[in-house]
Write a structure and sequence with these properties.
Chain A has about 450 residues and is mostly helical. Chain A has 18 helices and no strands. The chains are: A mainly alpha (about 450), B mainly alpha (about 500). Chains A and B meet through helix 15 and helix 16 of A and helix 6 and helix 7 of B.
Chain lengths: ~450, ~500
């Protein structure tokens, strides 16, 4: 609705053009968000409808993408042969995201998710000479299409029962639980859990994240995951909201399993990239809490979570993609050789661990609050905070490496001054959100 | 927020915070030290001035509330009452003395060292002054993070492991506390985090049991109470001396303070229910720690275990719910901070000069360092709670309360006093007197600033021991909130 197709073939200025494109999109979204007047009007027969919440979500995603482009732009160039193709793919994904941000019909949901997924399969395999990248792409494609198949079946069953693709109509038809609805809902739940990499549907995540070129892992783990969560929340809130009591236990179990598996496995990882893959599963467990609770706090908090989690993870991945060795030891002595990078990473890691005064704290805080608000199930909260304590362990291992260990090799020339200051800005953003989460909360 | 620096609590937060941030930009170590001293001294000065403005008529000078996250109902609320004032006074004194004591070239990257120390200072005063649970939680963590870095960067050989253990322990406690805070916040209909709003919640007994447990675990880890104390000896041993001083004289008081400010007023039913059991566990811990202390050969570990025993005693004092024991605890919190600081300074000086902390390898230091040994003797006697020293006042009142509550407890816990005399005096005997060791030849006596520091500490020990009344006057406004739900 408010995006333009992006087909760029110019050589050198692609990066700048992409940033300009993103800024344009941010401008358009912000304009629509502030004024309430649609930028472009297309008749979609009510299948797409942009509410304030959807637009706020889109805004956060676009800003995250801008951060992503700024921090990782150079790595996109080095990831594949022709950067313009890769940029174009990212913009295709954004197109899909824009569709997801406003879907009011299962048809559009399916379309949006597919537009997001298919370019991703390509991006995962963009490092053609690397066997692992090919493996990741294939694995991602197989698993992804399998889960899409599940979703289609679920949609078909729901359609069969309620006779409509529209969320509102489905909601109206969701008074009592029939076997058909239950089966459809289960299938959709499973496929959405696939997309957000929640246990027990998370098995693809570590291999795909590890195998893909780091720049695109970063994109997958943050922005794409947020989109999947947004779709998840909207669907279960709008369409299935009336049966909340029935499915919430299931979601609680998924959340606990995800938290436990993600956090405990992350402890044993030696490679930071793989550790982040598991940590992204663990964070997904926290975000699942919002699906469990589905109330105002959950919705507000989820947006905050997207922002806090994305900024922090994008920063760490951007650093990681500039390093050859991804083991924790390769971060040794960063505080000496790259003080600014080390400080920015420190803030990002503290944010992921949920330490106060960073965005991550209020994100987690809102998730917990949402569950407590929902009542009952205090064990869910207790598991979540204990898992947060476990997560401190693995995030702090990187901090320990950076600050308390001596380095063997000299890393000081890895990063350009421009990158350093951009990382620093990113860290400042995290702190600002940590002191004033109202900046995002007031969007809604 | 900048415009609103017109009262004492705000000043007490801003001074160390700005000082800490400034310190990171000072490249010169000497200048960093000077600035740290200036900021710590001005904190102390502001506090001294504020003493003249206590009481009801000056409320707006001592209480403050800024809009912070108005959308979720959290206000940046701070208060300066008797309880807070005592703790802030202790904090300010400890930090000032530590800054004066430690030479600027002791640690590399001195500017960062002083910066982190001042941030810890800020976190601690924030914890003591917060009247809003979210702000309290925030400062609780803010005090922890810089300490983690201080100990991990400048600590001993096994520092990374030891401090990490410390961090994880405390973090687990604090997230449990966070749940309890969120639970109560939800009960206020998500409108307020204020202490007074929580106070009016009327939680049922079962709710109180759970909330109490969450808070109590967090505080018990911090103090630490037996059996959650295992992080402490290791981390005291591995931390750099100034950090150990701050940790043991001020930071452990965060737990006791939390009990007094948050747990006692908010969960009276649970406190009444659990206090007998807890007193049994704690009294076992007190005697256990005293016994372990007797067998320690390392001075630092000995002081660490002695501290566990003393802190346990104070926690018991609170749980007796007797007014006399609680005032005793209040004053003892201050006294213990002063006494243990003196002990740590002695240990620091010995280690710095000889490199040895093993009691069996030291001996006969008194000949070379007579003045130091006199001060040490005073500190040790205060640690044993001899009459005329400050600790006597506090511990006498605590035991008075315990005796009123249960005579058996008093008798059993009283063992710890005897044990404390055994290990403390043994240490003095073996380190300062007895056969002259090789290490003794390395020792020089204290002079200059060090003497002044010890004179100040000794003066505090004796003055409070002889004339504690000003402190009790100061507590009067805090006692009401702590106890008024128990008297009825």
């Amino acid at each position: 609705m408010m995006y333009a197709g992006f087909f760029l073939q110019s050589k050198r200025s692609i990066h700048l053009l992409a940033i300009a494109g993103i800024c344009l999109m941010i401008g358009a979204t912000a304009y629509e968000f502030l004024s309430g007047i649609p930028f472009v009007t297309i008749d979609t027969k009510g299948m797409l409808e942009y509410t304030g919440y959807g637009l706020a979500f889109l805004l956060i995603i676009l800003v995250s993408t801008l951060v992503y482009f700024i921090l990782s732009g150079n790595d996109i160039h080095s990831a594949g042969k022709s950067a313009s193709d890769l940029y174009a793919l990212v913009f295709f994904i954004l197109t899909g995201i824009a569709v997801v941000a406003g879907y009011r019909s299962l048809l559009m949901l399916f379309l949006g998710i597919e537009i997001v997924s298919i370019p991703l399969y390509v991006l995962a395999g963009s490092d053609k000479s690397n066997l692992k990248s090919n493996e990741a792409a294939l694995k991602y494609f197989l698993m992804g299409s399998f889960s899409t198949g599940l979703m289609l079946m679920g949609i078909a069953l729901i359609y069969g029962d309620t006779g409509s693709f529209y969320l509102d109509a489905i909601r109206a038809g969701f008074g009592v639980l029939t076997p058909m609805k239950a089966a459809g809902m289960l299938l959709i739940l499973a496929s959405m859990s696939f997309k957000v990499s929640a246990a027990p549907f998370h098995f693809w995540t570590p291999d795909v994240y590890d195998g893909s070129p780091t720049v695109f892992t970063s994109f997958m783990a943050t922005i794409v995951k947020s989109v999947a969560f947004f779709a998840f929340l909207t669907l279960f809130d709008h369409a299935f909201g009336k049966l909340h009591e029935q499915w919430k236990v299931l979601v609680a179990i998924i959340a606990v399993a995800t938290l436990l598996i993600g956090n405990i496995t992350a402890v044993f990882q030696q490679s930071v990239k793989r550790m982040l893959a598991y940590s992204s599963i663990a964070q997904a467990g926290f975000m699942m809490l919002s699906i469990y609770a589905i109330n105002t706090f959950a919705k507000q908090g989820l947006l905050l979570y997207f922002a806090g989690y994305s900024f922090a993870t994008l920063g760490i991945f951007a650093v990681l993609s500039k390093m050859k060795d991804h083991s924790i030891d390769s971060f040794n002595g960063f505080a000496k050789s790259n003080p600014i990078i080390a400080l920015s990473l420190l803030i990002s890691l503290l944010s992921l661990a949920g330490i106060p005064l960073t965005a991550g704290f209020f994100a987690k805080y809102y998730m917990l609050l949402a569950v407590i608000r929902e009542g009952g199930m205090l064990w869910l909260v207790i598991t979540a905070v204990l898992c947060a304590a476990v997560s401190v362990y693995y995030y702090f291992r990187v901090i320990q490496a950076m600050y308390f260990k001596e380095s063997v090799q000299d890393n000081s020339s890895l990063f350009s001054p421009y990158f350093k200051w951009m990382m620093f800005l990113n860290a400042v953003l995290i702190i600002v959100l940590g002191i004033h989460p109202d900046l995002i909360l007031s969007l809604i | 927020m900048f415009a609103a620096v017109d009262n004492f609590p705000a000043l007490l937060i801003w001074i160390p915070l700005l000082g800490g941030l400034l310190s990171f930009f000072l490249k010169d170590a000497k200048r960093a030290k000077t600035s740290a001293i200036v900021f710590a001294a001005s904190s102390l000065l502001v506090l001294m001035v504020s003493m003249n403005f206590s009481g009801k008529e000056n409320m707006q000078l001592n209480q403050v509330s800024y809009d912070w996250l108005s959308s979720i109902g959290s206000n940046f609320g701070l208060i300066l009452d008797g309880l807070t004032r005592t703790m802030s006074l202790l904090t300010a004194i400890v930090f000032l003395l530590v800054f004066v004591l430690v030479p600027f070239d002791q640690y590399k990257d001195a500017n960062k060292f002083y910066g982190l120390m001042l941030l810890t200072h800020c976190g601690l005063v924030g914890v003591f002054m917060a009247t809003d649970a979210l702000v309290f939680y925030l400062f609780w963590e803010l005090a922890l993070i810089p300490v983690y870095f201080l100990a991990s960067i400048w600590g001993g050989e096994k520092r990374i492991r030891a401090t990490f253990k410390f961090f994880i322990y405390t973090f687990i406690g604090s997230v449990l506390m966070l749940i309890a805070i969120l639970y109560m916040y939800n009960k206020t209909n998500a409108t307020s985090f204020g202490l007074s709003a929580f106070f009016n919640l009327n939680n049922t007994a079962t709710e109180q049991y759970w909330l109490f447990s969450a808070f109590f675990i967090a505080f018990a880890i911090k103090m630490p109470l037996f059996p959650l104390h295992t992080w402490q000896p290791e981390s005291y041993e591995q931390s750099p001396a100034p950090v150990t001083m701050v940790l043991s004289s001020v930071m452990v008081k965060m737990g006791l303070f939390g009990l007094l400010r948050w747990v006692m007023p908010l969960f009276p039913l649970a406190v009444k229910q659990f206090s007998p059991v807890l007193m049994i566990v704690i009294s076992i811990g007190v005697v256990y720690a005293s016994l372990v202390a007797i067998y320690q050969d390392n001075i630092k570990r000995l002081i660490a275990y002695s501290s566990i025993a003393h802190i346990g005693l104070m926690a018991m004092g609170i749980l007796t719910l007797k007014e006399v024991a609680i005032s005793g605890t209040l004053i003892q919190m201050f006294n213990h901070g002063v006494n243990i600081l003196a002990l740590w300074i002695v240990a620091y000086l010995i280690e710095k000069q000889t490199g040895i902390l093993s009691i069996s390898k030291l001996g006969g230091l008194a000949k070379k360092a007579p003045v130091l040994s006199i001060f040490m003797l005073v500190a040790v006697l205060a640690n044993v709670a001899l009459p005329l020293t400050n600790a006597f006042v506090g511990e006498f009142m605590i035991f008075n309360g315990i005796y009123q509550a249960n005579k058996l407890f008093a008798a059993f816990t009283g063992l710890s006093i005897i044990f404390s005399a055994v290990y403390s005096l043994n240490m003095v005997k073996n380190v300062f007197y007895g056969t002259e060791s090789k290490a003794a030849s390395l020792v020089t006596d204290i002079k200059g600033l060090q003497v002044i520091i010890f004179v100040i500490l000794t003066a505090l020990i004796l003055l409070v021991g002889v004339y504690p009344q000003p402190f009790f006057n100061m507590f009067s406004d805090a006692m009401g909130l702590i106890l008024n739900r128990y008297n009825s």
